[in-house]
Design goal:
The complex is a heterodimer. Chain A is an alpha+beta fold. Chain A has three helices and six strands. The chains are: A alpha+beta, B alpha+beta. Chains A and B meet through strand 3 of A and helix 8 and helix 10 of B.
Chain lengths: 99, 305
């Protein structure tokens, strides 16, 4: 099964809180159910927000984020998104179903 | 009644029966000790502080007492008690006052969750507070001690108490704990400053405490509005350099340097967020206190945007 079709879910039902001051490319995220605070790059924060709004696949995210990756081909975009999702999973913010 | 209005014998007597209630801004500490040197150091360091009557509510009941037994005659040790329970490993008796100070810090940091407690020095001038959060070794206390001898008000050299309702910072204006070469640095920078005797061989090296300026003590109940978060970085021989510091990274540093951020939940996240919203964030590299003083004067005068 293609990994781009596996579905990603938020780790909790509650929506994370975000803080962004625009003086660099970093966003502070508070994950309410764990009580953890994370420092994320903007792409990771956007992906987290999208997964929290509705479970989705990396292919769906690549379509939504078309503008971000317009200079890259679809394969590169999917790799970046999946790497980011795996990192978010590593810190307990999202999880996925097996292929 | 102020500490300076007691004779040393009266202080000793009150300490022996646990009847010395020291006002520390937001808190009252009931002190009990049979260590004579503690009475002397309290008289020296807390001269300008007020006490409360014996029947006043005290937030913290603490005791520093000599260990009993034969050891008392060879290498005497003191032990810190909180609410009657021994709380730390004993220390050599010459570290009794330092133990009281460290123990009081622990009392506040471990129990005062009405505040977000940040491991930081806080100084204020013209109503604007500079928060200096930093890990040990960054020169935070040295910088704080220097600046409070040049017109800045001391709120704390160790614990910033952020009131999460008003977003104001409270302090306790307690003695400033200086280590190793910093003691002589401040003695040269501020010859009129008053110190305890230096105590060698503590876990932090040689330490001495500096008496807080009298004006700071008189205003200890006045909170201050955060205006700057400055991360000090002492670098030997360095020219002064004040650089903007990422607000997101500063947020994370404040959270890491907080003793109770984790237990405050989203309220703590929101409070630190507002603190960062209203503060300019910098990293200050410095090697000379005169240089650092000029940088802070420039900040206050709005010459640095």
């Amino acid at each position: 099964m293609d990994s781009s079709t596996r579905r990603w879910y938020p780790a909790s039902a509650s929506v994370s809180q975000y803080r962004d001051w625009g003086d660099d490319d970093l966003i502070v995220v508070y994950h309410k159910s764990s009580g953890d605070t994370h420092l994320l790059e903007p792409l990771a924060a956007v992906i987290l927000e999208m997964v929290e709004s509705a479970p989705c696949t990396s292919a769906m995210l690549a379509t939504e984020l078309h503008d971000v990756f317009q200079d890259d081909d679809q394969k590169v975009a999917l790799e970046v998104i999946e790497t980011t999702l795996i990192q978010l999973r590593g810190v307990g913010l999202v999880y996925n179903t097996p292929n | 009644m102020k500490i300076s209005e007691f004779t040393e014998a009266e202080l000793e007597s009150r300490l022996r029966c646990g009847a010395l209630l020291l006002n520390l801004g937001p808190f009252v500490a009931r002190l009990n000790s049979d260590v004579v040197s503690i009475a002397r150091d309290i008289a020296l360091m807390y001269a300008d502080f007020h006490t409360s009557p014996e029947n006043t509510f005290a937030d913290f009941h603490v005791k520093v007492a000599l260990d009993t037994g034969l050891r008392r005659w060879a290498k005497p040790q003191v032990r810190f008690y909180f609410d009657g329970r021994p709380s730390f490993i004993p220390l050599p008796a010459d570290q009794a006052f330092a133990m009281l100070e460290w123990g009081l810090n622990w009392c506040v940091a471990a129990h005062s969750h009405q505040y977000l407690i940040i491991h930081a020095a806080v100084i204020e001038r013209e109503g604007k507070a500079a928060i200096l959060p930093a890990p040990p070794g960054s020169g935070k206390s040295t910088l704080c001690a220097g600046l409070v001898n040049r017109g800045w008000r001391l709120l704390s050299d160790e614990l910033a108490l952020l009131d999460m309702d008003s977003d104001l910072i409270y302090g306790m204006c307690r003695p400033v704990n200086l280590k190793n070469v910093s003691v002589d640095v401040i003695k040269q920078f501020a010859p009129a400053a008053v110190f305890t005797a230096s105590v060698p061989d503590t876990t932090k090296g040689t330490i001495a405490l500096m008496r807080p300026p009298v004006d700071s003590v008189q205003r200890m109940n006045q909170p201050a509005c955060p205006a700057w978060v400055v991360l000090p970085k002492y670098t030997a021989g360095a020219s002064p350099q004040l650089e903007r510091h990422s607000r997101a990274r500063t947020f994370m540093l404040i959270a890491e340097q907080s003793f109770n951020y984790d237990i405050q939940g989203s309220r703590g996240f929101d409070a630190v967020g507002r603190l960062i919203d209203q503060s300019q964030c910098f990293q200050l590299t410095y090697s000379r206190l005169d240089d650092a003083e000029r940088v802070f004067d420039d900040l206050l005068a709005g010459r640095i945007e």
